[in-house]
Structure formats: C-alpha cells, structure tokens
Amino acid sequence: MSAFRIIANLNIVLIALVLGQTFAHAEQTNNKVIKLGMSTALTGPAKNIGQQLHKGSSVYFDKVNNAGGINGAKVLLLVADDHYEPKQTVNNTREFIYTNKVDALFGAMGTPTSHAIIPLLEQSKIPFLMPFSGASFLREKPSVKAFNLRASYNDEAQEQIKYLVEEHKHTKIGLFIQADEFGLYVESGLREALAKYNLTPVIVARYKRNSQDVESALNTLKLSGVTAICLVGTYEPLSEFINSAQKQGFNPEYTSVSFVPSFDLFDEVNSPSHIMVTEIVPNPLNCNDNFCTEFLADMQASNIKKPSRLHFEGYINAMAFSKAAKNCQFPLQQSCLMNELNSLLVTDTLIQKLFINTENNNKRNVYRSYYVNK
Length: 374
Fold this sequence. Notes:
Pfam families: Peripla_BP_6. By secondary structure, this protein is of the alpha/beta class.
C-alpha cells in the first residue's frame, strides 16, 4: 500500500507518495530521492483529467519504487491541485521549485496553466516534462526546457480537418472554443489546417473556461449554417453543448482534441451524435502489445476497474522518465536527463511505436476515437 503525507500550505495541498513507506521514513533510511512536482486539476470541472493522469503515473512509479527505485533512488511524486486555474498553477510551481526543490516538473495539465508559468520556467531553467498540452509554445520556445511525448495540437487539427473535409466532405465548419490560451492555440492549428483546403471557419463561438455557459455559443453556431463543429474544451461543457444541440434539433458532426477524455465525454453524451476525438495514445483496451498487457495488469492490481487513455498516458510518462533517469548518475543532472529523454524518441522501440510515425516524416502519431450511438 502507498503511504501519503498531506502538507497544507494556504491554497496548496501536496501529497507526497513513496511506495511502502512515508517520506519521513524514506529520508531516514535512504537519502537518495528524486523529486518530481505535478500541478494538475484534482478538483473542479477538469478533475477527471488530472486525477487519471496522476493515478497512471503513480502506479508506474509505485512499481519502480517497489523494485528498488531508479539506481537506488526512490521517486517522490508531489502533486498539487490547481483546479485548472493558471493563478494557482503559478503558486504551486513556485512552491515546487523554490521550497520543495524538485528535480523536474512532471505531467502538468493544461495550456493556460502551462502558459502562466513560462516566466518561472525561463528563470529557473527547470525541466518541464510531458505536459498534458499540445500547444506550440512548448515545442518552439528554446528558453524553456520542455520535453513532449504527445502530438501537437497542430498535428491533431490536421487529422480532424482531414477527417471532416476529405473523408466526410464538409465545407461549412464552425469552431466552439474555450476562451483562453488553450482555445487560441488549437484555433490557430485548425485555421492552418483549413487553409490547406482554401477554407476558413464559418463562425467561431467561445465560452468561459471552467463553466458550462454554452447557450450563447450554441445559438450562434446553430444560426450559422455549419454542418460540422470542431470542439475545444473540457468534457463537461462539450457534452452540455452536444446534448443541448440535439434537443434543439441541431445535429452537426463533431470533432475534438485529445484534451477531452473521450471515455468521459462519450459517457456524458445522451443522444445520437457523430463525434470523432483525436488521441495521442492508442486505446489500451484494444492493444495487444506486451506493454499494454503490463499496463492493464498493473491497473487491475491497483484496483482501477476502468483503465482509460489518460491512465495510460500518465503511466507512459512515468515509464519514459524512469528509462531516461536510469541512464543518469545520482544526483540527477538536468542536462543528462534532457539528453536521455530526447534520445528515447530515436532509440527506444516502444516510444517510437507509440508516438512516432516513421512512415510520415517522423511526425507524432495521432489516433482516433469514435462515439457509438447509444
């Protein structure tokens, strides 16, 4: 069983996880500890995302620690709830870097939250590893030491527009967009993808983050004559939009980026709909690879009855970190860690299989999920 110590500090709650022992006991018996800081949504409308990512990573790190750690060092995963609000992410990140002295930031959730901590990342030069975001600034900003496994939002946008325009012959496409940096970065990718077909969005309607206030946007899109809508947001407002549209007799075709847990979105949709969600990892329930089998066995042993792609992504993130860190001496050096992580993309067979499309100029893989009418 994992042991937790809960540390309350104003609006921040840190859960220190070390398999089989408390952190205090770990310090007494073994001073080799690798600290990772994870700011994510554990409460609020996006909590399912953060909780599942954290759980998936924790399960893998549990196994690593139970087997003796990484070169004898236990992995201590500190997690702080930011409610998917940028201001709290800044507070959490500052605490991780300057109080907890973490070795790296790991598995942060969200684009607006990641965007808010750019000054901290640039100042501290701390590694920012496997964020749950496909925003371009995490790939194109050399002043930030970011490492990304997942495909970019531009990659996902191209797959969605290919699906809508080439495969389903839509030309009247609207956008339903979360009004923040997340929405802006995905919108940019969608516009770029549409431009390749000499198209532009018929209309762009926005809604406020962490809300389900979709009525105005729905009315705007319904009156616009669109036949397809690209959705950008979390699963609660998106499902609210789809269900409300159907009740009003408005039934466009939908796509969404992977930030939406497709399992959760599909569970909330209660009407016949056509939905395609782009994904950045395969469905572990339909995967016959040995690694998928290992993942499912570990989930079952941890009493996770419905393993999801989010659990799987968190698990893979922890696996990638562990593989890279194993090739570095303790104490962990940032330069070695970043070099080893980047080398996984070209030398590790499993990472390449999951994330790299070797038949398409080594672009990142984009998978699909489809809603099956209930």
